[in-house]
């Protein structure tokens, strides 16, 4: 499958596909007359890359995970550890965002409370 077809199929820009190759997320994609030809293994790898990118993993972490994945079943524990670490990072982020939401809710409450007092309303 040519790069343009892959781009359309996965809704990823050609520039992004070239970038993934440049930073090492793809091994060298076969070229026929200078045109990239993606094989099934490349498509599977791209699918995994996009899944991990959508989750929020860095290119470095994606590359580490893919390398472990391609080493075989004996690296499953390490793969799980990478994913668990990323999961914990997401949970920490959610926790911090919830604290920020709570702070905003409190500020809104204070403003509404002050407005009630200003207009002579009782609590």
UniProtKB/TrEMBL annotation:
SMART domains: HTH_MERR (SM00422). Pfam families: MerR_1. Keywords: DNA-binding. One of its GO terms (molecular function) is DNA-binding transcription factor activity. InterPro entries: DNA-bd_dom_put_sf, MerR-type_HTH_dom, MerR_fam. It comes from the Bacteria. Residues 1-68 form the HTH merR-type domain. PANTHER family: HTH-TYPE TRANSCRIPTIONAL REGULATOR ADHR, REDOX-CYCLING DRUG-SENSING TRANSCRIPTIONAL ACTIVATOR SOXR. This is MerR family transcriptional regulator.
């Amino acid at each position: 499958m040519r790069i343009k077809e892959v781009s359309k199929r996965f809704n990823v820009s050609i520039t992004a596909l070239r970038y993934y190759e440049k930073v090492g997320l793809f091994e060298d994609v076969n070229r026929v007359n200078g045109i990239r030809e993606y094989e099934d293994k490349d498509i599977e790898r791209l699918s995994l890359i996009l899944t991990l990118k959508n989750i929020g993993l860095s290119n470095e972490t994606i590359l580490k995970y893919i390398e472990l994945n391609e080493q075989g079943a004996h690296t499953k524990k390490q793969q799980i550890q990478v994913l668990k670490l990323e999961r914990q990072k997401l949970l920490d982020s959610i926790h911090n965002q919830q604290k920020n939401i709570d702070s905003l809710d409190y500020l809104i409450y204070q403003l509404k409370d002050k407005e009630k007092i200003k207009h002579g309303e009782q609590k």
